[in-house]
Amino acid sequence: MLLSGKNAIIYGAGSIGGAIARAYAAEGARVFLAGRTRATLAAVAGPIGAEIAEVDALDERAVDEHADAVAATAGGIDISVNVIADHDVQGTPMTDMAPDDYLSPVVTNVRSKFLTARAAARHMKPRGSGVILTFGGSGDRTASGRFRLGGLQTAFEAVEAMRRQLATELGPYGIRVITLRTGGIPEAVPARYKGRAEIAARLAADTALGRAATLADVGRVAVFAASDHARSITGAALNMTCGAVLD
């Protein structure tokens, strides 16, 4: 198993976080799920034996205390994954948006990923190893304008800058920092969104392969990124956009 003996914290247990949690557990990791909704956490954790905690990733004290508790219980933190990307307003043209609606995903993404990365790194540095994964990524994706994503892509670009800086600062301690980048996952589009089928079709049409990544794909790539097979990769975005974004 690629992650046998590894302790992983995953912030966010929705579709993407759940897929990563299942993939990690299948590869032998001890999984700690953190999020704000216990019912969502429990639904993912039950079948895989993950441990759960209600944690607001925007709350500095809550994030630090949870990381301390995991490290004390499990003996350390090997992997930290933050897939939180909520508080975004989509479908509205930028010229019609209120400033707070545009900036909300930027603040949420930057603050939550800074806090969770910092908490994990403080435990990883003394051990001389660790992997910090974020979700999002940048690219010259023309479809982002068509989908009217508001401030979400701006948030992802800000996190990319954070990823590069963290990789530089933490590399001497053996800690790797990587972004998981997709061009959009049809399965992850909430059912409540109008035009969900149209969005899924457009996501696939924009790729070189004629299909978009699946949740299972995300889980497999996340396993690789956290494993020793990727020990030479840091400061990079792993491109699983199926060719929607070309490096």
UniProtKB/TrEMBL annotation:
The keyword Oxidoreductase applies. InterPro entries: NAD(P)-bd_dom_sf, SDR_fam. It comes from the Bacteria. Keywords: Oxidoreductase. One of its GO terms (molecular function) is oxidoreductase activity. Belongs to the short-chain dehydrogenases/reductases (SDR) family. This is 3-oxoacyl-ACP reductase. It comes from Actinoplanes nipponensis.
